[in-house]
Amino acid sequence: MLNRTPLAGSARQSINRGEGPSSIQFTPERIVAAIAFHLIDEGIAISVAPQSTKRTLNRLRQQSFTWTISSRLWAKMSNLQRLRRLLEESHTDPSFLGGGIASLAHRSR
To answer: Which of 9, 48, 87, 89 could form a disulfide with 27 if both were Cys (CB 3.0 to 4.6 A apart)?
Structure first.
């Protein structure tokens, strides 16, 4: 089960008044929450190991991680495509511990 500590950061979307598409910015908290959401929502896992979310958050915070994607592009993606992109951008791989529990780890390059 996910730790009760809130993972979701504030939603940051820039709004360009007719100057182009808006974008979605992912902070470490937001991307970890989104990865956990999509793993569970897609039925890939029933929960995410809390220690692995903490490790991933710490790693991304140390890297001053942020990632921005066009809202238009995000809207065109399926949930599975979103999950794959979130994992790719955060250099994170899920592994499975049994009992439907996923664990997040830094992707070895």
So the answer is: 9
Q: Residues in the chain, how many?
A: 109
The three-state secondary structure class of 76 is: helix
Angle in degrees, 0-180, between the axes of helices 28-41 and 50-62, rounded to the nearest 10 = 150
Residue 22: other Cβ atoms inside 10 A = 14
| pLDDT value at residue 89 | 96
The H or E element that residue 68 is part of is strand 67-70
Query: What does the alpha-carbon distance between residue 87 and residue 67 come to, in Å, rounded to a whole number?
Result: 12
Checking if the pLDDT of 24 tops 90, the result is: yes
Spatial CA neighbour of 30 closest among 82, 72, 73: 82
- Helices (DSSP H) in 1-109: which residue ranges? 28-41, 50-62, 71-76, 79-90
